[in-house]
Amino acid sequence: MDYALTLRNNNKIYSRINTRQHDLQCSADFNIRFVMSGSENYQLGKRQLYIHPDSFLILNKGTQYASSVASNDPARSFSINFDQKFLDDFKNCWMHKHENLLSQPDLIQKQEREFNETIYPFKGDIRYNIFHLKHHLDNNTQDELLINEYLHHCLINYYRIYNDEIFKKAERLSFLNNSTRVEILRRLNLAKEYLYSYYNKNISLEELAAHACLSVNHLLRTFKQAFNVTPHQFLVQLRLQRAQLLLKTTRYPINEVVSMVGFECPSSFIRLFRTHYKVTPLKYRQTA
User: Fold this and answer.
1) Strand 40-44 relative to strand 12-18: parallel, antiparallel, unpaired?
2) Which of 36, 152, 191, 218 has its CA 20 to 30 A from that of 85?
3) Is it the case that residue 2 has pLDDT exceeding 60?
4) Strand 75-82 versus strand 30-37 pairing type
5) What is the rounded radius of gyration, in angstroms, for the C-alpha atoms of the chain?
6) Is the domain of 110 the same as that of 197?
7) Same domain assignment for residues 37 and 121
8) Domain span at 270
9) Are residues 29 and 139 in the same domain?
10) How far apart are CA 1 and CA 151, in angstroms?
11) 16-38, pLDDT tens digit by residue?
């Protein structure tokens, strides 16, 4: 179902079925972009980011981008544009104590406004929140109080993910200099984005390290420190996750799913899937 909803506080919500490429655009607000089915490609400068139903992308206000459908089928997208006043008010409430907010209701948040524009995992509370919000909107709810409560919780859930994906992972890096940790994590996120986007290709370690502007050994050491898995382990988990989604939502034969997610050997895929999910791919499909 397609709709474009603008609330009285200027928050905006879009649900669209995309089938074509969109030319260069500029993000007017901070926004969060999801793909409910299919996949989309976003070009941010020289970066190519592929968004699937298990991930989402944030764009800061003023970011230039182009997007296109990256799947054989149309992509069903869902996006939220947050009005700057609503976003600033949320940041104040998130960062300051209640007594400060009561005595200084117009307190200005000094935290930097730019978030790390990268791919984040779409799971847990934020997934639950967005699916419920979309269900209400698909059923034509007009209750703006309810809708804005969902948007508030969406920001809470995003901040928690941002804290886990950026700050906590930076803390794991064994560098004393904070600016060094931040720069290393920025480069590691480039590697992670590359794995998210090209998970079904034959990715070499040298290729991945070059994309992240790190040496091979530096990538291996710091990636494991930040994400608790090696790049190969991360890639295998991602391929299994995407295979699980295909088994649940499509009728592609299992051998075709194996090829679509980048595995070469069906028997190896079945063994890995059973080890990871405690069920064979066939049984998972029958019970999903």
Assistant:
1) unpaired
2) 36
3) yes
4) antiparallel
5) 20
6) no
7) yes
8) 233-287
9) yes
10) 20
11) 998 888 889 999 999 999 999 99
CATH number of 24's domain: 2.60.120.810
Of 206, 175, 209, 177, the residue nearest 192 (C-alpha) = 209
Which element (helix H / strand E) includes 265? none
The full DSSP string for 128-155 is: HHHHHHHHHHHTT---HHHHHHHHHHHH
Q: What is the DSSP string of 144-210?
A: HHHHHHHHHHHHHHHHHHHIIIIIIHHHHS--S-HHHHHHHHHHHHHHHHHHHHSTTS---HHHHHH
Considering the domain architecture, whether residues 192 and 282 belong to the same structural domain is answered as: no
109 and 203 together in one domain? no
State phi, psi for 244 to the nearest 5 degrees: -60, -45
Question: Quick one: which of 103, 76, 107 has its CA closest to 1?
Answer: 76
pLDDT over 60 at 107, yes or no: no
| Separation of alpha carbons 166 and 185, rounded Å | 7
Phi, psi of 153 (to 5 degrees): -70, -30
Residues contacting 181, CB < 8 A, separation 6+ = 170, 171, 173, 175
- Single-letter residue type at 211: H
Tokens 């898995």 sit at which residue? 229
Summarize the confidence of residues 199-223 as an average pLDDT: 95
User: How many structural domains compose the chain?
Assistant: 3
